[in-house]
Design a protein that fits this description.
By secondary structure, this protein is mostly helical. Helices cover about 60% and strands about 10% of the residues. It has helices spanning about 30-50, 55-70, 70-85, 85-100, 100-115, 115-130, 135-155, 160-165, 170-175, 210-215, 230-245, and strands at about 1-5, 10, 15-20, 25-30, 195-200, 225. Helix 7 crosses helix 9. It is elongated.
Length: about 250
């Protein structure tokens, strides 16, 4: 037990702020008091920043930089910087994620528990964006189908779809794009478009019995686009065949 220097309450040691320089490894302030003190300091600082007399040269620079970002020139420069440094940012994020995977996962789980409504809003936004983007839309269809088939066999999807199947979302789209604005290969009547197309497995994926079969049947050579009506007919026919074989 330890006494807080601010609220004068006796609390357990794990409730106090971590400080490596102290003997017991904890500060004399508890977490609640420390947060309150930080909030008060930030409020005072905000009030100081409102007047030019309370600003330092660095504060003035940050304010001007923020104002510049909202202008048209600032927005154009920010876009150019993001496009030029896209690969650098990707590499940095990959390395950071590899070095701090456990910490990132624990933090994200805790955030979802604390903010369930915000998480729902984020998911809805992401789903709308992914549905609008045809590349992600195709990839999501394959991903969902893959996890469903693995569950039916009694396995779990342990890694990303790209790592399991060996091709990216862009490669999948470039393979399937040749079927768009062409007549359906099954009926030769309906013109395939982004709105009315379905990803079809030439050899039905329902035949898969092992993980190797699932990976083999989800390769690009076994995938094509057909119209919705043909896909529905093929699914019912394939199901009858599979049930008959069983």
């Amino acid at each position: 037990m330890k006494k807080c220097s601010r609220c004068k309450c006796e609390k357990e040691n794990n409730v106090f702020v971590i400080e490596t320089n102290k003997k017991d490894g904890r500060k004399e302030l508890c977490n609640e008091c420390f947060i309150q003190l930080k909030q008060k300091r930030s409020e005072k600082r905000k009030e100081k920043l409102k007047t030019p007399a309370g600003r330092t040269a660095w504060d003035q620079y940050i304010i001007l930089r923020r104002e510049f970002r909202h202008t048209e020139k600032g927005k154009i420069k920010e876009k150019q910087y993001r496009e030029n440094s896209k690969h650098k940012q990707q590499k940095y994020h990959q390395v950071y994620y590899q070095n701090n995977t456990e910490h990132i996962k624990a933090r994200s789980i805790q955030w979802t528990k604390d903010n369930p409504e915000k998480k729902k809003q984020q998911r809805n936004k992401q789903n709308k964006k992914r549905q609008a983007n045809i590349i992600h839309n195709f990839h999501d269809r394959i991903r969902k189908r893959l996890s469903r088939v693995l569950n039916e066999i009694g396995l779990k999807k342990e890694s990303r779809t790209q790592h399991i199947l060996g091709y990216s979302a862009q490669e999948l789209f470039s393979h399937l794009a040749k079927y768009i604005n062409q007549l359906c290969e099954d009926c030769n009547l309906i013109l395939i478009k982004k709105e009315n197309c379905c990803i079809d497995h030439i050899i039905p994926i329902g035949c898969a019995k092992t993980k190797e079969d699932v990976i083999r049947l989800n390769q690009l050579e076994n995938l094509r686009l057909i119209c919705k009506s043909c896909n529905l007919l093929k699914v019912t026919y394939d199901l009858r065949l599979i049930k008959g074989n069983k």
